[in-house]
Amino acid sequence: MTLIIGALLFGLYKQLNMEQNYQVSENLQSQAQHYQQLSRTVSRDKFAEQISRADSKAVLVAWKDGKSVIGALSFMPDDMPYLPKTKDFPILTTGPDKLHILTGGIVNTKYGNILIANRTDHFSAMLDKFVSASATAIMVTIIVALAMGYVFSKTILSRLTHYNRLSEEIEQGRYDTRFPLSWRNDEFDVLANQFNKVLDTLENNLMAIRGITDNIAHDLRTPLSHLRIGIEQLINQPADNIHEHCANLLEELDHCLSTFDAMLSLTRIEEGQLELERQPVSLHTICHDLQDMAEALAEMNQQKLNIELGNDYTLNADKHLLFQALFNLVDNAIKYSGENATIEIHQDGCHLKIIDNGPGIPDEFKDKVFDRLVRLDPSRHHQGTGLGLSMVKAILTRHNANISLSDNHPGLIVSIDF
């Protein structure tokens, strides 16, 4: 801004200087033409009278008639050029300002050369005052700009220093640290708000990892303990009982391995590492297959499995993965809704619902049940990995489907929209 102001003032100075020179030149040229015309129309005496009566405020004129000089000036300087060329020269007066600077030139007339000049020292004084005022304005601008720049930079640096200190705390493991937001809502606040969102996500992920670790420890401790005890007891088992005992140990080991296999499969599906074998799949066909597969399980629990189909819908999907996800939902309904419950499969177009009248899921857990290794306490007496619903959501997401849970009063409604 200081450079811009300086450039503008310099341009204004040059413009004023050019305007002054133009006005002086125009005035001198006008007077020169006047006296040239006058010399052609009047006598020598009248010409001398007109020069002596010329207004000295408009222009200063001098004419050398023989040895005497007539006009406002008492002398004619040497080496004065002919107009339009001009030359500056000083004169002494009896007024308060004794020294004046004039700009003038010689004009050739019928009665000889005359000197025509304008006073220009007051223009120079005005320009000097302009230059002085401009220099003062620029200095004040520089001082104000430096002061404001210092305050502005100190404010920015103080916030950056504070952010850096908070970053070091986060680096040391204090993930609950958040960047402060000010009332200004400036770029720093926008950046701080974005970092706070990242920290919220990071903290939630860390909490999820801790929860997964706790769930792994909880769910695998019992079978691993059984394996250790079983191996210790294997030495003392009778020969005819070793085969049965080994079969029990292998069952416990398979449960542990299935948990890790499910976690690896879930990661591959979520990360897109598993290629889907897509083909046209009818939801009517999927629902009939679900009924055929799950009806026997429902009868074993003295439950009813009903199916209600509307308009068919065909989607491009991996038939085996999609059936696995939907069967997992039906199996959960059979497993947790209790005896004498009714499970219903409703399909109409791209909408699919699995409904039961069991105990349902509390509202605060409806979102959490899709996280890895999350199992509600009432379900822990059922053998499982806690990854079923996580796998369901991952498969449905890969098929561009949304899943949501709602209450059936009593029971649970699982809604899927393809």
Automatic annotation (TrEMBL):
Transmembrane intervals:
130-152
Task: Tell me which EC number(s) this protein carries.
Answer: 2.7.13.3
- Catalysed reaction equations from the record: ATP + protein L-histidine = ADP + protein N-phospho-L-histidine
Q: Extract the GO molecular function terms from the UniProt entry.
A: phosphorelay sensor kinase activity
Keywords tagged on the record: Kinase, Membrane, Phosphoprotein, Transferase, Transmembrane, Transmembrane helix, Two-component regulatory system
Q: Which PROSITE patterns match?
A: HAMP, HIS_KIN
Q: Any idea where the HAMP domain is?
A: 154-207
GO annotations of cellular component type = plasma membrane
Compartments (UniProt record): Membrane
A Pfam family this chain is assigned to: HAMP
Q: What is this protein called?
A: histidine kinase
Q: Which organism does this record belong to?
A: Parashewanella curva
Q: Broadest EC class?
A: transferase
